[in-house]
Amino acid sequence: MVIKGKKITVVGLARSGAGAAGLLSLMGAEVTVTDKRPENELLDMVKELGPSVKLALGGHPEEVFAAADLIVVSPGVPLEIRPIASAKAKGIPVIGELELAFQIIEKAECREQSAEGENPIPFLAVTGSNGKSTTTTLLDHMMRKAGFNTVFGGNIGNALTEEILKAVKSEELKAGSNENLSPFTFHLSCDYVVAEVSSFQLESIESFRPHIASILNITPDHMDRYHSMTEYRDAKAAIYLNQRGTDFLVLNADDSEVLDLYTLHFRPGNPDRPKVYFFSRNREVEGIYYKDGKVYCNMPDISCNTCLIKADEIRIKGVHNLENAMAASAMALLANCSLEAVAESMKEFKGLEHRLELVRELDGVKYINDSKGTNVGAVVKSIESFPEPVVLIAGGRDKAGDFSVLRELVSQKVRAVILIGEASGKIKDALGDVTDTLMAKDLAEAVTMSRQMAKKGDVVLLSPACASFDMFRDYEDRGRQFKKLVMELKYSNA
Fold first, then answer.
1. What is the Cα–Cα distance from 393 to 370, expressed in whole angstroms?
2. Which domains does the chain have, with CATH numbers?
3. What pLDDT, on a 0 to 100 scale, did the predictor assign at position 164?
4. Model confidence pLDDT, tens digit, residues 14-45
5. CB atoms within 10 A of CB 276
6. Could you say which residues of the chain have pLDDT below 50?
7. Backbone phi, psi, residue 430, to 5°
8. What is the Rg, in whole angstroms, of the alpha carbon atoms belonging to the chain?
9. Closest Cα partner for 326 from 196, 198, 216?
10. C-alpha to C-alpha distance for 357 and 350, rounded to whole angstroms
């Protein structure tokens, strides 16, 4: 992992690409960034790059790939595109931004290694189809509550290389150094790296090895990128394939796809595999479990069958957030957090924007922003979280989701479905005969319709089961527009 003086091509100028380019440039590499979008669509990202970074925008020139000593790929870029495939055929190394961050930290003189071959700074990594951001943020809250210093980033929106760059610059300023950095010389004061990890990021790892990893769930998602659920599931499994017997893996005991991976890759007593703990809403397990309104810790090295917290004391609500809290708790306890710090964090943590976020209650109706519900599995969990009847606003850009999975739940709990976006016709075909189904031309009309359809005591839930890019910049833009529209609603005169 020699960086200084090397020609490195960074593919994709989103947050990950900008972070990787900035850190590599500071470390003395000759960096070229390429993106299929033209420069006028990337001005905000271009402004973040240093003057030494070269740009090849509006396409992917093959000569930029062929001349590279190393290619770093952003998560949104498929590895099958021709320039990357050609470079790999020529023997040019191709890694992702996550792998780059891991290798840089692995080689950095961050602190004394605890044992030969052990990472200087342990990674705590969370993946899954749904709940990653909430779990990872809560985990970081627990670690900081317990007094640990963390670098926090990944798929959550702030690239790990970007966060490392910020931390390194801070350290270097303290030390009074202005020289280019080497991965073997820079200092980073940190106890843990806490990372949200996507399947896209895991496609391009080589040596990435988290000390503690978790797979929250695996439900159909990104089927427009993966050819089958098996391929998607295998991408998630990469999070633990480099782990060793001194590492830990936390799995959802209630998820059939996750259990299939466990059956496939683990056998009792294998010293080359990580120690596995589970979390469960439905049964007692070795790990963290829910029973009779309480969450218990059953981890022999920490505490056996000890009540960690009453479930109604957990600030974030919903069945999926109970699972997220249990997963974060298991990981934090394995990373030496105290039981007290973990429990207090669950009482304090408010949750994240666009994840079952209460916008307001108006005329007895609760309006909930779950714009991050971008796949069918997420919508199932969201609807299950409400005992009240639901008016569901859904639709957007289809990710090859199977909306028929929602039929039984919608027939039982959803008063009406209001559809927007490119996938509205497909969703109507799947659900239109099980409840009232309305088509709206845009989100503003959908909110107006929801006001008309909802009765006192109902929940209006924006949980789209789709990507946002047909009508919005991203899911955050969609969620914030929804909140603005809801806040503009007036109380009735009745």
1. 10
2. 7-92 (3.40.50.720), 100-348 (3.40.1190.10), 357-487 (3.90.190.20)
3. 86
4. 889 999 998 898 888 999 999 999 999 889 88
5. 16
6. 109-117, 119, 183-184
7. -80, -30
8. 23
9. 216
10. 10
